[in-house]
Amino acid sequence: MSKTMKNDKQALVPRLRFPEFRDAGQWQENQLADIATLHKGKGISKADIKVTGSQPCVRYGELYTVYGDVISEVVSKTDVPPDDLFMSREGDVIIPSSGETKIDIATAACVLRENIALGGDLNVIRSEQNGVFLSYYLNGSLKHEIAKVAQGNTVVHLYKSNLEALKLAIPKVQEQQKIADCLSSLDALISAQADKIDTLKTHKKGLMQQLFPREGETVPRLRFPEFRDAGEWRKCKLEELAKRGSGHTPNKKHPSYYNGGIKWVSLADSDKLDNGYIFKTKHEISEAGLRNSSAVLHSPGTVILSRDAGVGKSGVLYSSMAVSQHFIAWSCEKSKLSNWFLYYFLQKMKPTFESIAVGNTIKTIGLTYFKEMIIFVPAVAEQQKIADCLTFLDALIAAHTEKLDALKELKKGLMQKLFPCPEAT
Which stretch of DSSP H or E encloses residue 317? Predict the structure, then answer.
């Protein structure tokens, strides 16, 4: 057998196959037009979407909020008469006909319900094949192939003719069903895990509202048993409990001021904030950069807050780090204030920080606000108890998030192996 023939044969068979199909032969190569008819949805503008509408509908926007590769519940409704709509059949696969980027437009979902109105900004693939199987296939190994045939730059279009010429290989319907069931089960696990994380986050948010006093009050609504008779929390300036510091950006015209091994928190690290400890930074500065600027080295445990560009985001330094001038840094006096209590207090205050920031291009909070900032605190033992409770919840959320990421990676790996390599089909 020639190398070319061998490659062609391998190309029409996935790398991973269920035992009962390992001797079932190659998948059948087709163009999408050979196995499906393509349609375009009809009508439904933003103005047609009504909360009080009676007709379930899907526009391209729903495809970017769907979790997984199927639509089983429809969040939008319209009051447009049914005769003016294109109604789904169970198993229809939908792909946007226009969008912002080529890779985003290559987003498919199988509609698991009939009589759902499909908007005019959708391509509809109607086939006797398994629709769930097709949606996974299109979202997996064929996604980049679809993106290649999309047209346009500012507004990207995906025409019926582009999709009809798409090459793919199809197995027997029984194998399609097996693959669809496998990936659907995995999506159900992913969805359940995401719901669990959302529940924990909602619980944490509610708990924080209860564990800190409300505005105008001096005791929280919820208190640990050993502190219920401890009296009111004490009102004082944050400046009385923690030493406030800031930072600076070394002159970027001097390369020697950078990449010197000193972690330096800047706006580039915005994605690392609001996650407790900050372990790493995108940029580092040098001893020379530290000496020749107003930047200072803050000790481990220092609590920092962004006062502009990502205003209100906070974190705790895991090791000694410098920060840019965009941050306020507090070193807490341990006998008066727990650094983690302060971190969670700042987290609770985040909506307030966002609301008081001013500016057009970049919103910021002036230094005067933080100089006069008031905080209510209980005894350090109660502070630590509150901090420990919320830290435990954060650790639980992080553990479940890692599990969710692992499930997503598992799905990604499976989809790469359960479908043939697109270059050969």
Answer: strand 314-317
